[in-house]
Amino acid sequence: MAASEKIPAHLRTRGSMEASDRREAYPPMPEALEVAVYDNHAHLEIADGENPLDFREHLDRAGSVGVHGVIQVGTNVATSLWSADVAAVEPRVLAAVAIHPNEAPELHQKGTLDDALQVIDDLAKRPRVVAIGETGLDFFRTEGPLQPPQRRSFIEHIRLAKAHNLALQIHDRDAHHDVVDVLLKEGAPERTVFHCYSGDRELAEILNANGWYASFAGTVTFGNAKGVQESLAVMNKSRILIETDTPFLTPTPHRGKPNSPYMIPHTLRFMAKYLDTDVNLLAAQITDNTFDVYGRWDDNPPTIRTNPVTGEPWDELEPSRFHAS
Ligand SMILES: [Zn+2]
């Protein structure tokens, strides 16, 4: 495994992922929240927009509007390593590690899925890795013959979450029934989160019945998201979380622009309005829930002053432009 003395600012760009040239500007800062919340799902390693923010710029902006921490989520070996490395030195970041359901079939075809799962197993032992994810099923992108390896990978991730006593973050796209089926058959981890919750009232009732969590992203603010909004109303308040899925799914009124954890206030304020409740009360409830699932960001503060991979001293972080300017 190649060891780098620097944590790179980004690992990939959204533009090349979507074969389009995204030259969008970041949206303006929203009004700050009074009660702190945490973004429980973001991919800060993806560069987006005409002037991409690096992870510390995202975190600085988030902190200035009351978003005090982020779970940085891996989707393959490289991004899971990056997530765990950043969490090891950055107090505002905890990490989730996994092979994404859209990556698992490809690795299976190359014959490297088991090696990749072994890396995830190793990373799960790091002190600031608090979740296995994102894993799950995606029948939107994955067709018939590739679904069995995707399912096998999901089952392995469930096993890892339980073995390491970590939370599980689930990616469920057009696969509600099968995701629930696998969870019930295998036995779900104690803390199971449906990331970017996309179900309807019926799925919300299933989550409530099993004590599973629904994490609401910017999609809940979209005009065509009636099922997600009805689910928000149905969910037990103790099982609601909030996320951005940065750089994707930017909430209204900035849909289509690059996303960042500092956009959480838009989603939170929409949720409070929809539920006809006070923003501060909802923020406090969601933060309690977040700590129940992942622990607190300062439970195991970063003590590492050496590169976790090479053992070299850690003075090589690339500077944050946001601080410098
Ligand atoms: Zn994600």
- The structure class reads alpha/beta
How many separate structural domains? Answer: 1
Question: What is the CATH topology classification name?
Answer: TIM Barrel
What's the β-strand tally?
10
Helix fraction, binned, reads 25-40%
Low-confidence stretches: 1-5, 316-325
Write down the overall mean pLDDT: 91
Briefly, what CATH class? Alpha Beta
Global geometry: globular
Order of helices and strands: EHEEHEHEHHEHEHEHEHEHHH
Q: Roughly what fraction of the amino acids lie in strands?
A: 15-25%
Query: Could you state the CATH homologous superfamily?
Result: Metal-dependent hydrolases
End-to-end gap: 35 Å
Number of helices: 12
CATH architecture: Alpha-Beta Barrel
Short description:
A divalent metal cation 1 binds at residues 41, 43, 134, 245. The protein has twelve helices and ten strands.
Please tell me about this protein's structure.
The chain has helices at 14-17, 55-64, 77-89, 104-110, 113-123, 147-163, 176-186, 201-210, 226-234, 264-275, 279-294, 321-324, and strands at residues 12-13, 37-42, 46-47, 67-73, 93-97, 129-138, 167-173, 192-194, 213-216, 240-242. It has 325 residues and is of the alpha/beta class. The longest helix has 17 residues, at 147-163. The site of zinc ion has 5 residues, from loops.
Question: What is the strand and helix layout of this fold?
Answer:
Layout: E1 12-13, H1 14-17, E2 37-42, E3 46-47, H2 55-64, E4 67-73, H3 77-89, E5 93-97, H4 104-110, H5 113-123, E6 129-138, H6 147-163, E7 167-173, H7 176-186, E8 192-194, H8 201-210, E9 213-216, H9 226-234, E10 240-242, H10 264-275, H11 279-294, H12 321-324
Parallel strand pairs: 1-3, 2-4, 4-5, 5-6, 6-7, 7-8, 8-9, 9-10
Helix pairs in contact: 3-5, 5-6, 8-9
